[in-house]
Design a protein that fits this description.
Chitosanase, subunit A, domain 1, 9 helices, 3% strand, 2 domains
Length: 180
Amino acid sequence: MSSQRCSDVFAFVLQEEGGATYTNDPRDSGGPTKYGVTLATLRRFMTNPGLTANDVRNMTLDTATAIFESNYWNLCKCDSLPLGVDSSVADMAYNAGVDRAVRFLQQAVGVDVDGDLGPISMGAIRNADPTTVIDTYGTICTNFYIGLCNATYQKGWLNRVNAREQFSLNSIGGNANPVA
């Protein structure tokens, strides 16, 4: 991995994703999943549309790690984000998509929401108080999950937002106020 921080955040993400457990829950639109990596994500990463659920089941941790770093950590410019903010954004990206995670971050720091972490967004992020950004980001993510129609996973998603916020704040020595 590009950094120890990336490795530490991925360890948190793996814990939230259930580790190496393979799942194929018919209620989950992601389909076959291991390490939080879906079949569709694995196919895109490997540039092989012929991969099957068995390929997900047999996926290695090294492959999942490479996917996290290249498709989430790097795309969200996490090495350039403040400590704590990086983990909030990377985990949300892994769970709900890079574009959504970046847009929520822009919303949290009050810049135009365009999905591009350009110089204006990055300047606002760097100039903001990380504790406030993490807290605001958590609220935005909570509201997003509450607004989803799929109540099957809502409690787990909200628990993940709380765990993410605590992990992120602990990274900078802050405290979280969990969402009920």
